[in-house]
Amino acid sequence: MSGASVSLRSVGKSFAGRTVLDDVDLDIAAGQFVSIIGPSGAGKSTLLRLVAGLDAPSGGRIELRATGRKADVRMMFQEDRLLPWRSVLRNVLLGIKGRKQDAGRILDAVGLQGRESEFPIGLSGGQRQRVALARALIHEPDLLLLDEPFGALDAITRAAMQLLLEQLLVARPRTVVLVTHDVEEALLLSDRVLLVKDGGIARDLIFDQPRPRHRGDPALATLKEELLDGLLTAERDLAAVA
Ligand SMILES: Nc1ncnc2c1ncn2[C@@H]1O[C@H](COP(=O)(O)OP(=O)(O)OP(=O)(O)O)[C@@H](O)[C@H]1O
């Protein structure tokens, strides 16, 4: 299977003495698509940043393994983080020499054929996220970390981006960890959904429904309700503490 495997052993993270993650153990298999949901402030982005190596854990160990090379890890955020003074093509080729043809091919794959020489300011939010996705994918990452990448998009654009991501992963499987507030998005895309709360993983659901999945599918609806219930309870607990 393509992609990196990820393992966390007794991982903890505190900020100024306040524990956000406590003793987290997690194994993600190569090629698995894992979504992380949870109440606001539960530590979802923190967990992703630790896996990305953008931040160091306060305790424990994180290991990434890819076959034959050091795992290439790319991250995508809610904001596109494109450089406004660089064209679409030059954003994708950021830090890369040559490979203009590869970049053109990837821009075609994300639906931006013919837009190479335009600048981010002339693109819609969804188009800018397509560029951000292309910029990650040109590296053929073993692990793709997505922090609410479609969170700022309207419902239709969001659905189109979910479909695009799924198609790209069918064509070229890799390990993905997605942080999302959208339970339906998690269920449409993932092999596994983690509910993070109280400093740890409160639920770990394997979801092996065949793809492509459909929003109206009763199997999705049942799980969606269960997860929303878990989320609402977590939010209620938080409100009670506050
Ligand atoms: N660099 C930092 N310094 C201090 N505290 C931080 C830092 N990063 C995160 N935190 C705190 O850690 C907690 C978890 O934050 P995190 O962003 O991981 O939550 P989240 O689950 O992703 O939330 P949301 O769903 O609202 O984005 C929050 O209380 C936040 O204030």
UniProtKB/TrEMBL annotation:
Superkingdom, taxonomy of origin: Bacteria
SUPFAM superfamilies membership: P-loop containing nucleoside triphosphate hydrolases
UniProt keyword Membrane, yes or no: yes
Residue ranges occupied by any ABC transporter domain in the UniProt entry: 6-223
GO MF term list: ATP binding; ATP hydrolysis activity
Key words of the record: ATP-binding, Cell membrane, Membrane, Nucleotide-binding, Translocase, Transport
Record-stated family: Belongs to the ABC transporter superfamily.
PANTHER family in alphabetical order: ALIPHATIC SULFONATES IMPORT ATP-BINDING PROTEIN SSUB, TAURINE IMPORT ATP-BINDING PROTEIN-RELATED
Protein name (database record): ABC transporter ATP-binding protein
